[in-house]
Structures are given as structure tokens and as C-alpha cells.
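Project outcomes to date are best conveyed with an example. Our students and postdoctoral researchers have been running inverse folding experiments weekly, and each run begins with a structure described purely in C-alpha cells. The record below, which covers 201 residues, was selected by the lab manager from last quarter's runs and is presented without edits.
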């Protein structure tokens, strides 16, 4: 993490879109674009390991089911479950699905999901797709009612190699035929969200 002369943290950007992370796994390539926008008076914390920059009072994080502004009805619950699982896997905090009893709340809103062909085979059928998911994520200290971390425009892209015969761009139809795709995209997205909060800005 870098700091400006005023001491405000900022992110070193690579290219015009500033990708924060890239994951290559088999035929899948994931790119996370993190554009941080902090409200005036709020603080951003870079958390490493146990998260020593979080207030000591925060031991339990509530993660209610994310909101969903897309036409794909299942995405909010799938993504919420993946984020909870990813947090639990890190072993640093107690994770609960409700707001009551939480020291901090992680709220999310899935704002968009789209699918576009990336390449075609000789039969002019799409052989690879780019899946793009956008969301607004916020971590808030409940007792102080203060934003600890937020990204209102988090964008995640993954390139996915489709099975033969798939040639759709509607998310519901696509994921109906490619059931593994939504699980993989959601897992990578959740990993990106949790890493951004617990590791570095």
C-alpha cells in the first residue's frame, strides 16, 4: 500500500482500469478490478493475518444475505455463502449470518452480471466467455456506526471455456447449462472480496 503526501492510502494502478488481482487456473483467468471509494470521515484498514488494524472489539462479523439487482435470482445467496465460507476458512473471526450479536457487518449488493463471447470455434459458436460480476461491498463497525472498508464498484471478470453447444449470453440460461461456472465465479469473487479486506488495499 502506498500513501500520498497527505497520508491518505491509495492503490497503485496498472493500466486504465487498475486490476487489483489476477488469478489463472487451468482455462480460467480471473481479474479483479478494485476501485476504492472511501466516504469522507471514514477509514480504510489494510488487514494482514489476524487483522491488527481492525479495532480489538471486533471479534464477530455478521454477513447477512446480499441484495440482488440482477435477473439471476440465485446469485445473491450463492455469493453470500461463498463469502461466509471464505471468511471462516481464514480462521480469524467468528462469522454469523445475522446482524444481531455482530461487532461488524459486511453488507453486499450484487449490482450486475453479464456474459459475453470471448472467442469462437470454426463453427462460429462461442467457445470462451467472459463473465463479469459487479457488486457493492461495505464493512461497518456496528458500535461506532463507522465504515471500516468499502468498495461500491467492485468488478470481477473471469474467462470461462464453455462446453460444446453453448451459445447464450443470458446469465440464467448460461448458468443453467454450465452449472459449474457460477460456483467457480462465485468462489473466486468471494476470495477476492475477503482478500481485499483481510490482506491489503
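After processing, the design step wrote out the following sequence:
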Amino acid at each position: 500500500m502506498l500513501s500520498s503526501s497527505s497520508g491518505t492510502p491509495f492503490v497503485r494502478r496498472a493500466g486504465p482500469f487498475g486490476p487489483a488481482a489476477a488469478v489463472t487456473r487451468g482455462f480460467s483467468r480471473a481479474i479483479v478490478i478494485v476501485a476504492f471509494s472511501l466516504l469522507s470521515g471514514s477509514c480504510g484498514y489494510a488487514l494482514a493475518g489476524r487483522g491488527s488494524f481492525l479495532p480489538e472489539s471486533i471479534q464477530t462479523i455478521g454477513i447477512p444475505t446480499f441484495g440482488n439487482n440482477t435477473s439471476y435470482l440465485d446469485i445473491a445467496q450463492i455469493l453470500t455463502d461463498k463469502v461466509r465460507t471464505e471468511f471462516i476458512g481464514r480462521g480469524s473471526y467468528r462469522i454469523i449470518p445475522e446482524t444481531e450479536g455482530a461487532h461488524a457487518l459486511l453488507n453486499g449488493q450484487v449490482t450486475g452480471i453479464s456474459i459475453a463471447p470471448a472467442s469462437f470455434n470454426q463453427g462460429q459458436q462461442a467457445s470462451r466467455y467472459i463473465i463479469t460480476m459487479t457488486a457493492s461491498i461495505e464493512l461497518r463497525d456496528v458500535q461506532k456506526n463507522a465504515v471500516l472498508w468499502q468498495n461500491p464498484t467492485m468488478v470481477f471478470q473471469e474467462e470461462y471455456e464453455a462446453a460444446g453447444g453453448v451459445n447464450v449470453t443470458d446469465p440464467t440460461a448460461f448458468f443453467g447449462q454450465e452449472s459449474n461456472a457460477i460456483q467457480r465465479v462465485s468462489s473466486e469473487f468471494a476470495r477476492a472480496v475477503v482478500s481485499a479486506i483481510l490482506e491489503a488495499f
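The domain at 45-198 is CATH 3.30.160.150 (Double Stranded RNA Binding Domain). DSSP finds three helices and ten strands in the chain. The training component of this project remains on track.
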